[in-house]
Amino acid sequence: MSAIHFYKYQGTGNDFVIMDNRNGEYNFLTEQQVHFLCDRRFGIGADGLMLLNKQEGYDFGMKYYNADGRESSMCGNGGRCLVAFARKMGLTNEKLTFLAVDGPHEATLSADDWVNLKMQDVSGVEINSLHSYLNTGSPHYVRFVEDVKAVDVYNEGKRIRYNDRFAKEGTNVNFVQSLEKGIFVRTYERGVEDETYSCGTGVTAAALMTAGAETKEYIVPVQTLGGKLEVRFTRTGEMSYNNIWLCGPATLVFEGNITLP
Q: Which cellular compartments is it found in (predicted)?
């Protein structure tokens, strides 16, 4: 039986278990144990789990696991929460740099737990008549709808995520409604296999798909079930985007100890 000290953070309702692993003390975690910790009935409850690791050449390294216990691709809201956690753990540089599975990132923080996270450049977007498909650190299917609140996100998202094309690798599925200012996004996340209150790489993908043909900087306010985010980016050419920033709150919910089975 192993007892661990954990912290729980949330960014617009996207919630995460986090541990300070800079001394390597949580390297033993198994897929089953991560799944247990994320379980909402028998564990702490979260959409994913992250380890704050030492990383040469950076302020820290980010290791991310989905709620199913498997190591996964980049999580935008998770990255923002890990930056807030790193600040709490004493990493006080004005700008923090870290290495995630999709490459290097940088971030800045405001005093009120607002984190600005720089995402990877995006190109190679696939445009279809009903949807777009792109990778913002994780793969995302984006469909614009008239009334996002009326969409059966769980069943429709699951159908797309497990269709012939995406079943093997999986995809996240985003339903997006254009608002007077910005967009409203709801997301079915692979690895959670359900709708989450917010998905950082998902709202980033949706925001990029609102850009016109003009090469300029865009600022897109985003509404999710869990709250408000903002995506800033520059369109640089035909389906090519850089200087992408995911901005929003990242808040400590509680910390505690739990004994692993």
A: Cytoplasm
